[in-house]
Amino acid sequence: MHLIFRNKKHRLNLLKLCTLVVLSFQCPVTSAQDKSNINNRDLSYLTSGGKLLPLQAIMDIRHYTIELEVNIQQQSISGSVEVSVNLLKKTDTLLLNLVHLYTVTKISVNNKRVSFNQHDDKIFITAAAGFEIGNQKVNIEYNGIPPVAIKPPWDGGFTWTKDSNGNDWVSINIQGEGGEMYFPCKDHPSDEPNEGAELKITVPSNLVVAGPGLLMSVTTKKNKSTYYWKTNYTISNYCILFNIGKYKVAKDVYTTIEGKKVPIEYYVLEVDTAHAKKVIETKIRDSKILEKYFGEYPWVKEKIGIAEVPNSGMEHQTMITFDNKFRYRQVGGHEYSDNLFHEYAHEWWANKVTNKDWAHMWIQEGIATYAEALAMLELGGEVAYNEMIDGHRRGVKNKKAMVLGDEVTEEEVYSGGDIYGKGSFFMHGLRYVIGDDIFFPTLKKLATDPGYTYDNFVTTDDVEKLFSSASGKDLKPFFDFYLRTTNVIDMNVKEIGFQKYQIKINNFFMPLPFDITANDQTSRLIIPLEGITVNSVLPPQVDAKGFYLKKVTIQ
Ligand SMILES: [Zn+2]
């Protein structure tokens, strides 16, 4: 998702209301964290990820089929989800996540009715004989009123609104809280349905459903239409969703860098069709930039999809959402939309290259943000690139390290605010340390090598090892310093004789190259543990272009 510093916990409005009511009546909401009371609609405690539960560690999710009818008047959903799961160990309990706002009415496993109970935003499914190793098909029937998003896409849920012509317009955002916001699933970033997902969504037939993958069919019965979307690719839970609107589909075809033809489908509100041509042209131009650095568009067997939604964009695989109000800014004489580009970069950095846990989210957000700087380089040259990188450097907060462990919640990671700008600035520094000839091909390898993409996940260590081996340098200290601490390089420039200066790093962690400017000449010098001595009339300037986060003291 796009950078805006989020202040979560927006869903307290209901509680505040209750505080007033409690003066005269007993408030029905007993606890902000009452995870079983269907009347408690405050989900502000909810965040995706964290420690993987043992009951879920034995489940390998293969596929989801979501069949739902959306009742727009009642703002409710009802239907079923089939979870195809490969059990790695025999167990007496299957555990799925679903927020407590829904009522589960029936569950069967391999077509046999089973017992279940719902509490703490979980469904515990049991059978007397237990569940055997191997493939299990779990079918859950349920209904309920989904959480309403207070500040989408940063705080998730459903958004029920109308377009400017008064037509219903519904969007879903669930990155922060997870798929459990509207469908039963194993809600952990370390497990995606490797065989994809299907969505069969029924809506009033005057409306259209935009979804992931391929539109297999649309069937209409009694003023209701069912849109059947199917993706065969592995996909993150938070990308398995749909948007509803009075859409038209603007189409084109994109020829990839490898010469393959991919349909472009833009689900644009009927009222906004005049803007469609420009959005598609921008998308084609952006595709070429992204493919140049990161290889072919990842989902060539399906589509390049875009859906207009009533909130800032999200990286929903093969159906990126966006809302730039059709405003663009000028970069080097080209029209550019940050939101449109950033979300699109996530098709490579999030959807194709996916971090194993929220802990390593800087890979997705930091590199997608760095991709924006590369777009600047392509459209506006070095000046535009440096301007954006300077902004990323100035924006570094350093309140919290970017990598805080191995199993961390989404909330903990995003609340630091540095995974975007500092993540991007880290890539810029890495580029300087190892040089363009190694940096760019290695970055492309990370985005294209089967070991890092699609069904595989990546961690910070994977990225470090790849760049270390490509450069022939042990870059672990550099990665650790930037990603696992909030330190900046602390340097001294000290006059030690006549026109002679020593440059030393006080918190040295590895020899690093620096641009040293002395007597109007700039040279790239490696500073070792013992520091270096430079002859200069005036104190030499260190790293004038700002490739590093540093503090320099002149003595
Ligand atoms: Zn993002």
Outline: globular
Strand order in space, largest sheet: 5-4-8-2-1-11-14-13
Helix content: 10-25%
Query: Could you tell me the number of beta strands?
Result: 30
- C-alpha Rg (nearest Å): 26 Å
**SS class:** alpha+beta
Give unreliable regions as ranges: 5-30
| Mean of pLDDT | 93
Terminal CA distance reads 44 Å
Largest sheet geometry: 8 strands, mixed
Give the number of helices: 10
Bound molecules: zinc ion
Strand content: 25-35%
Task: Explain the overall architecture.
This protein has helices at residues 13-21, 54-57, 276-294, 338-345, 362-394, 410-415, 421-434, 436-448, 460-471, 476-484, and strands spanning 59-71, 76-87, 91-97, 102-109, 112-113, 115-119, 122-131, 134-144, 157-162, 168-173, 197-204, 208-210, 214-221, 224-231, 243-245, 247-255, 261-269, 304-308, 320-322, 329-331, 334-336, 354-355, 457-458, 489-497, 500-505, 512-518, 521-527, 532-535, 541-542, 550-554. An eight-stranded mixed sheet has the order 5-4-8-2-1-11-14-13. The protein is 23% helix and 34% strand. The protein is of the alpha+beta class. The model is unreliable at 5-30 (pLDDT under 50). It contains ten helices and 30 strands. It starts with 12 loop residues before the first helix and ends with a strand. The longest helix has 33 residues, at 362-394. Helix 3 (276-294) crosses helix 5. Bound molecules: zinc ion (ZN). The site of zinc ion has 6 residues, from helix 5.
